[in-house]
Structure formats: structure tokens, C-alpha cells
Amino acid sequence: MVKTCKLKSTFYFEFVKNNIAEEEQNLLVETILTTCAMLLESYIPDSMFADTCSDMFDTIYDMLCTTDNATLKPTLQGSLFKFLYNSKHTGMAIKWLESGSVCDKSGKKIEGCELNQTLKYTIVKQAHCKAAMPVTARQELLTKVAGGDKSDIAINLKLSCKTLIPNKSSKEEAWKEIIDYNNELSSYERAAMMDSFFNRDAEVVLAPYFEKYLEAVRMCADCGNKNFSDAFINHTCPSFNITDSFIESLKKIAAEHSNNVKYESYTRTVNKVIGSLEINKKIKDFAA
Fold this sequence. Notes:
Blueprint: H1 9-19, H2 26-43, H3 49-66, H4 72-80, H5 87-99, E1 101-103, E2 109-114, H6 117-129, H7 135-146, H8 152-164, H9 168-179, H10 187-197, H11 203-206, H12 209-220, H13 226-235, H14 244-257, H15 264-287
Antiparallel strand pairs: 1-2
């Protein structure tokens, strides 16, 4: 019903927020919260994103602090970090990182809620998003969690963190690396940076990059690297502040190559992104 604009996405989240605490079946809780996390970025109006994240985080955290259901705790813990966004909650999570576990409101570790490596990485990445976080504090967190780790996952984490920092110089440096399809980055390393580039905390800094994205999509048509082209168009595309003119510009780019068989794969990729953006914008506008 949300996808067909018969029900506002905001109503759906409000319904979940007001009723999820009464649900005790782990599979249903997991399914519902996973669905909410998937819908959040694409379906919630941009002006309501922060409040929705905050409400969902508080709701899940309250459940985690009060439940005696040991089976439910891992589901709630995993879901909680999918709604980690605002500075207050990020500060709480950094304290949990220091203790190695999610803690209740009195500061006591919640049994069965130790932080695994994935959750630690989530906290570190969110800390890098915050402009108020001192550079040294960011670096200390990253070093603590992945300092000597030489694995691909740790390398990707470091690239994501570098890309997430919400200042002009960091974004420009990251952008140059992302669009240089001849550099030595692996496809996974490049994807880590692409996925992290358009983050909401850097909204002001990112304003010029919507046009730069369109320019780069045009460049992809003739770059001669299909893997890079597909990855860039899909992974780097912003999910917020999408305007009708942005979508129309993408349509014009696709139309420029639509009659040439050589660009069949390229135009298919661009049109797929256009379709997703149109659907998501329609749902957001209906809910606003």
C-alpha cells in the first residue's frame, strides 16, 4: 500500500513505532524492522528522515532495555544500529563501543548484546559522519576498531570513513578517486567509497555534486569500462534531495544514447535508476 501510494510511509512507521513493542514473535519483529530499515532511506520524506530515525531508535532501544526474551535481543540489537543517525544516539553508541556492549539507560551492559565487528564498524562510520566530531577522536576510534587489520573489510571501512567526513576537502578528494576509473582501487574498494559519498550529514557540502554526478554519468557512456559505469551509476546516485529537474536531466542523458545499440547496457542502467528515483520521489511526496 505504501509503494502504491495508498498509505503514507509516515503512517506505516508510526504504526510500527506504536505497536512493535507488543509483538513477541522474533520472526515477525525481525521482518518488520528489516522492512522499516529498507524503506527508510527511499520512502520517508527528507524533512522527516531525522525524526523518523530518532523515533525508531528510541522505540527499539526501549524494547532492548526491557525485554526478557533472550531470542529477541539479537534481532533488536541488529535493528537498532540501522536507525543510528543523530548526534545524541551516536554519542551513546560510541560509549557502548568503549564498553564492548550495548548498555541500558543506567550504563549497565545488557546481557547478550556484545558488539560484533559489524556493529563496531557501523558506529565508527557514523562517528565519521558528524562534523562536530574532532579529527583526532575520529582517528582514535578507527584505529581502535581496525587499526592493524589488513583484511579487505577493514580496508573498505577506512575508505568509507574517509569518504563520509562532511567537509569540502574530504569530499572533493574522495570524488576525484571515485571518478578516476583508471586508478588502482579494486571494485570493492571503489564501491565502498561510492556507497558512502552522498551521506545526509554532508548535505550542504554535497550540493554541487548533484550536477557533478550527472556530468559523470555522461562520462560513463564512453569510458569503456562497463563494470565501473554500472557501479558508479547505481552506487553513487543520491537518495535524498531528488528534484524533478534532476530526474529529467537523467532522462535526457539516457535519451541521447537510446538509439545506439552500443549503449544498450548503459541506457538500461540509467533508466533503471530513473525508475527507482521516480517511484521513491512519488512515495515521499505523497507522504509529505
